User: Fold these one by one.
Assistant:
Number 1:
Amino acid sequence: MADETKPPVPRIQLHLDEALAQGVYSNLLLINHTETEFVLDFAFLAPGPPVAKVRSRVIASPRHAKRLLVALQKNLQRYEERFGVIELSGDDELTVH
């Protein structure tokens, strides 16, 4: 079999305006999906009445959502290797509807 080499992946430069570069805080993520897309709503839930404000919505293809999952897993592993295991409490239990 011939030696098949993949072309190098080009490095992508990200340009952010100052407001976007500040980011937003989110402590709640709601995920919905159809056959063709995943919708991720990043929200903030303040203490008090259970009303969350969506801060950002990201819509991604299923393939991109899976790449995001793999990237998060790899980065969490690296984080825990460097800073220690992230412990989850009973309050952190995942709710799937």
Number 2:
Amino acid sequence: MSVSVLGISGSMRYPSETGEAVEVALRGAERAGAHTQYLDLSRIELPFCDGRSDEDSYPESVQAFRGLIRSAHGIILGTPEYHNSMTGALKNALDLCSGADFEHKMVGLIGVAGGAISAVNAINHLRIVMRSVGAWVVPHQVSIANTDAALRRINEETDSPMHERLLKLGGDVAKFSKLIVAGIIDVSGMEEV
């Protein structure tokens, strides 16, 4: 059974360390048998979410973005940590979606930070947002500190612990998505407590 996993980089830099980490996680999803697609928010133009009541009145770029979310079985979200949270660009992109776009999707979270503290706060905020739109966040998450050095090691040492954690994250999203698609896990009537 095949599932699709969409990886989204919430960094506005191109290329970015966040994008690199998301792409490694997508390789883990591919190894688990998923079809994958990568989307870099810095490469598309999305307007600011203005809270309009008719979400279908947003431009085509928003409709295309929402379509990618809806068609994916699993999603990997990556963000650099800015001021202890996710990027404004990623939050805006998520705000342009409705809860129905994310409901019952499996989601994996990646945070990157240039300093030694890592990106735990950004990941926690993403987890809260995903819970509010009805998505299911896999327990395993990846927070990368000192991204320049860490990603150099990940790219040079494909057996590094961080590389393995990113592959595992992608694999988990694909595997849990397969269980939902196969009906082995029925989340349609479940609500998070």
Number 3:
Amino acid sequence: MISYQVENDLSCDEFISVLQRSTLGERRPVNDPERITAMLAHGNLILTARDNGNIIGVARSLTDFSFCTYLSDLAVDKDYQRKGIGKELIRRTQLAAPKAKLILLAAPAAVHYYPHIGMKRHEYCFYIDHADELK
């Protein structure tokens, strides 16, 4: 049976483990535990999915609980994908901050997943990697 819970004290090792067992590990600094620890420390809404105590999914967000929730990391172990776990983590993330709009940037491999579960695409997203990129 899959259990879901808020785990704002999730360990670095467990987070890295589920990232590596999902496709998200390819785009996260899994070989830099100090950076992962900082990511966890500054994420203020972390939901997990566990199967008999073993972590199989995580949704790490930054939210003000009032206006916006940025779902930065959604990772589900490849062996558990296509079972509704990612969708349930998203649902529970939104319910934890019901007045806030949930926002995420899709990983390339997941760009078709989000519209499939009912999320809307927004064409006005911008980003920079470093401040010196600004003109």
Number 4:
Amino acid sequence: MSAIGRSDRLEEVRAALSAVGGGAPATWDRVCVACARVPPVTGAGIILSAGGEIRTSLGKSDPVEGVIEEAQFTYGEGPCVDAARHSAPVHEPDLAGSGLIRWPIFAARAVEAGVAAVFALPLQVGATYLGAMNFYRDRPGPLSHQQITDVLAIAELVAHGVIGLQAAAPPGALAPALADVPFRAQVHQATGMISAQLDVGMAEALVRLRGVAYTEDRPIDEVAGRVLTGTLRFDDQPD
């Protein structure tokens, strides 16, 4: 990619971030599409986290990126999980090989969806940690030196963009561009109920919830919904 082409693509990311504040539908997805064009890679996504745990997807470039993000949220493992927890970049150029050792459940699902390589970078501004930026490719191989420079630049742009949007919001309120993001509230509510049923910590309760989702091969939101309606309890199940 020429220097001019790269500069133009970074400007597309900046423009897409600027448009987020306008409240146009699927704006964050458009940010991710622009981000994927810079290195370039097959797709990209933005994940928000708190306390090292993935909370929700802020945007995704395509359906395969959606599979990547859903698998990480459901199973609690994957590149963005590690990037958010350890505040460090994660590079896996051969997901079908060593990725199956690092993240056996996530990697199997992602490879099945057509993912060959994944790369994640923490989103942070100073001591403020927001989540992680994910990039994937449909063929294996490491990022080049220029591509690494590009993804670092993108992660910095996105992190500052999110912080800038929230800084303009009234105290105690989410910025409009973030307020409509689904924060998977029912999963966190269900985790609290499981914690009370089993008298265990929230982390252990979330592990139990994820275990059912994996065993039954169902989305974790669906399993959480059953907990909230009382059709699934954990205190009447064998250990």
